[in-house]
Specification:
Length: 171
């Protein structure tokens, strides 16, 4: 089983990452972390190939994101573990990057969280777009991790429903 955690540069991503770690511990899953960098795309102009510039921008962001990820693991079962090799920094719109990475990695769950407060059913653009684009179950972590007391497990006989049903006692 693989859990893909989408993070951004905001401190609220720490709670999302910690939830991913807790889920990995409970489910015996592997952790993959992705940070999307929305880089400007020239559309109507004849411009030179910017792939080298984009690559340099991603290389500059990667160490900072890895540093934050390693700081955010403090106080978890993975405190002190270097997660740098689990982090992918990818150019693109966040929802598209999450969906593509989930497919590429055969992720079983995408885990995302908000970077600012919205209403109960007012999800931000990234969440809304991820719900629309992804073909992978999505766990939305709002706030700090709390071990679930009850789990609503689907029973539609799909492989995803079976995985949820089998995993639910681990919580």
């Amino acid at each position: 089983m693989r859990i893909l955690v989408g993070i951004d540069e905001y401190p609220e991503s720490a709670a999302t990452l910690r939830a991913g770690i807790e889920l990995c511990e409970a489910l015996g899953a592997e952790l993959s972390i992705v940070h999307a960098v929305a880089l400007a795309q020239p559309a109507a102009f004849d411009v030179p190939d910017l792939s080298a510039v984009r690559g340099a921008a991603l290389e500059k962001v990667q160490p900072e994101i890895c540093k934050r990820v390693n700081e955010w693991t403090g106080g978890t079962a993975w405190d002190g573990r270097d997660l740098g090799s689990s982090v992918a920094v990818v150019a693109g719109r966040p929802a598209q990057v999450l969906s593509a990475q989930a497919a590429e990695l055969s992720a079983d769950i995408i885990l995302i969280g908000p970077h600012r407060k919205h209403g109960v059913f007012d999800f931000g653009n990234t969440m809304r777009n991820t719900f629309a684009a992804a073909h992978t179950p999505i766990w939305v972590q709002v706030g700090d991790w709390k071990r679930p007391k009850k789990i609503l497990a689907p029973i539609d006989l799909s492989p995803v429903a079976k995985a949820a049903w089998v995993a639910s006692p681990n919580f």
